[in-house]
């Protein structure tokens, strides 16, 4: 059976990081090019079933950005420690452990190891620029991979700058991948001494108060994505109701983002070291204060619907 091996070098990266090479982050250029590679994969029906990624920040982010833009869940990504700055022998060792049921595998790692591996497998050395994808094909099993046919060499920087909306084949073009424009969020609440309290967090700029919300990641339903945003942005866990409290839209990335909002009963607050965005502030306020503090009228209206929802579930 023909196997498809996709070798992707991570995108353009910042030169330094205070904690060292392992933590160097992608530049915006690197993020966009990784996303362009993902769109190319979707358009060419080369969506991997499994992605093996170096655990370095730049490789993990490249894997996630390309995966989401291909319309795939990041749950197919496996971080493999031996792929960090790996030599060809380590890359081949990781590939060899792939289940033979997988027909399309992607490996996201570093140079010079990736270029050397391309040379070994295709008899053609390629100096892979950042965010370059090499598509190899062979007939056999992953543990016996040897000679491959090089089918495509794609540089992210050479692909269209804009992204099709909505999804592959869309005629409209936008400056971000299509999934960016569908978002989810929660109104986190608790009851203390019979009083309804709402959790607000500071915005990323720190200039105003908001609720946790963000991009609806591919591979998750709306409630799962909203729960993930609550954990990352507000550092809270809880029960997200299967009830659409409301939706609103706002302008961003030269287009309109649609946001679905769900109620969330908070059951646990994470400690700062467990909270991904602990640079934000968070505070519990009354319902009236929450409605007053948020600076989006449509969102204030949605928050105001929470008591009616809670009364409804009490009577169910």
CA(first)-CA(last) distance: 55 Å
CATH class of the largest domain: Alpha Beta
Q: Domains counted in the coordinates: how many? A: 2
Q: Indicate the CATH architecture of the largest domain.
A: 3-Layer(aba) Sandwich
Number of strands: 16
Domain Nudix hydrolase: 179-307
Organism: Terasakiella brassicae
GO molecular function, one term: pyrophosphatase activity
Cofactor: Mg(2+)
Question: In short, what is this structure?
Answer:
Keywords: Hydrolase, Magnesium, Metal-binding. By secondary structure, the chain is an alpha+beta fold.
Produce the secondary structure layout.
Layout: E1 2-9, H1 28-43, E2 50-53, H2 57-69, E3 77-79, H3 88-96, E4 104-109, H4 113-122, E5 132-139, E6 149-155, E7 163-165, E8 172-174, E9 182-192, E10 195-202, E11 209-210, E12 213-215, H5 222-234, E13 236-240, E14 246-252, E15 255-269, E16 282-286, H6 287-293, H7 297-303, H8 306-314
Parallel strand pairs: 1-4, 2-3, 2-4, 9-15
Antiparallel strand pairs: 1-5, 5-6, 7-8, 9-10, 9-12, 10-11, 10-16, 13-15, 14-15
Helix pairs in contact: 1-2, 3-4, 6-7
Spell out the key features of this protein.
316 residues; elongated; Nucleoside Triphosphate Pyrophosphohydrolase; alpha+beta; 27% helix; six-stranded mixed beta sheet
Your description of this structure?
- Strand 14 and strand 15 (255-269) form a beta hairpin.
- It is elongated and about 70 Å long.
- It has two domains: 2-161, Rossmann fold (3-Layer(aba) Sandwich), CATH 3.40.50.1240; 180-314, Nucleoside Triphosphate Pyrophosphohydrolase (Alpha-Beta Complex).
- It is α+β, with helices and mostly antiparallel strands.
- Helix 3 crosses helix 4 (113-122) and helix 6 packs antiparallel against helix 7 (297-303).
- It has eight helices and 16 strands.
- Keywords: Hydrolase, Magnesium, Metal-binding.
